[in-house]
Amino acid sequence: MLLICAWPAVCGRTWEMTNIYGKGKELCKSTWGHCSIYNRRLPAGFSYRRLYLQLDEDDTGASINMILFFCVCVCLSVKGISYFMSKGILLDHPTELAKFIFYTRRLNWKMLRIYLDERRDVLDELVTLHNFSNQFLPNALRDFFRHIHAPEERGEYLETLITKFSHRFCTCNPGLVRELGLSPDAVYVLCYSLILLSIDLTSPHVKNKMSKREFIRNTRRAAHNVSDDFVGHLYDNIYLIGHVAA
């Protein structure tokens, strides 16, 4: 409650400084990296202060800046997205929604996961915003899961995420694909192997950890064209850095 009461005052002081230096748009972008309204012709009298704070009350009588704070800064919800679209801040287009999600870091990953599971068109666009060029596979997978969190259980949604990641990784690394003989299907298998290895090496419930030799042998059974050296480097990465989906 204290945070709710203090928020307008804090924002007000912040805006006094930004009005002096004329950096209102930059402050908006520091919180929401992409909004459709940034690239549109703005009406006369438009104020980024009003966009950021929205101190007028909405039709429910609630302070809009509180709605923004809780629906957008703290959690992503259909209501929060719909509100932004109703005010012309966001366009109801998969690419625009994907950019908003990609460039806004303070979103609740549980709500985001539900939203993307329902809006596969937005998920498709969000995947294409990732650039995995010249990234080692497990590092790229970590980067992917930092933006699009993996579900807690195996299922259709996890399979969808790994499939989309595998295609995107191959698209971003055509040279590596040719050199190592990779394909989206092979990357898919490697990703699952990395997830299982991550669980094996990091879980306190697994007493007998998988050895590097075992990992190479098991992975090569499913991904025949991948070299032992490459699979060994995958193992080393998980052993040294940790879980790919933590």
UniProtKB/TrEMBL annotation:
Residues 79-241 form the SEC7 domain. Pfam families: Sec7. One of its GO terms (biological process) is regulation of ARF protein signal transduction. CDD domains: Sec7. InterPro entries: Sec7_C_sf, Sec7_dom, Sec7_dom_sf. GO terms for molecular function: guanyl-nucleotide exchange factor activity. This is F-box protein 8. It comes from Lates calcarifer.
